[in-house]
Amino acid sequence: MISGRCAACKYLRRRCASDCIFSPFFPSNNPQRFAIVHRIYGASNVAKFLHQLPLHLRPEAAESLFFEAKCRIEDPVYGCVGIISQLQHQLHVAETQLAKTRAEIAFLASNLQEAQPHDFAAQPIQGPNTIGFSQIGLSTPAHWFNS
Amino acid sequence: MISGRCAACKYLRRRCASDCIFSPFFPSNNPQRFAIVHRIYGASNVAKFLHQLPLHLRPEAAESLFFEAKCRIEDPVYGCVGIISQLQHQLHVAETQLAKTRAEIAFLASNLQEAQPHDFAAQPIQGPNTIGFSQIGLSTPAHWFNS
Known about the structure:
2 copies of one chain form a homodimer.
Chain A: H1 7-11, H2 31-41, H3 43-51, H4 58-74, H5 80-115, H6 117-120
């Protein structure tokens, strides 16, 4: 059966109006995409979220809602927050690694300065710039790191 | 009025049964916590998500649902995904910084080896270990980095 209805209207077995809120973001050739957001938020909530936004922001919002819903289905305990914890852990590892490397550079530079005082006196060697990891200010509870 | 009902049952104006699914995670002294998850997922979806999990996993699930819902209210376009993009960007910066630093160490070590061949011949200086950023395998669409 050929149908001009979007995936959401097909799923909800209703007519797809020309100004359907779902139609631009849930095409009929990808029924799974709507099924996933519907399962997590419910159709009326998704419609409400999209309606609240100006037109140009809706595609990104639909995409991020789909991503979060998919994460929640794949990981019913942590959802997207599992990825956040994993990334925060990776950042912690990177920060530690950078601190270690900076210390290594300082050690090498001081050895080199002793060995070649004239060549390096005018070119002080600096460690890498500090990356402001702490600036991100995430409010994820600390215990998620330990789970 | 003193009431033994949890925040969810108060919000939904219903009796709070002794086996209420919400009661352990949405205490009456924090009505906002339930209001937030209700606004994003709806009460019946939250109940469904919790019911599907074994008892010991429900506290973490309630916490991550609350966190995600709060993120969606604070950032209706990107929600939690905004944090993921931000962290991924920070990781990219850190990876670049580490590569630069490793090159700097290699340069210093080779200069030092030339200057002090006998001291350093037996102690090869290595760059820091590579951090497996690519191992995280996130499926966030690449265009979120540019937004």
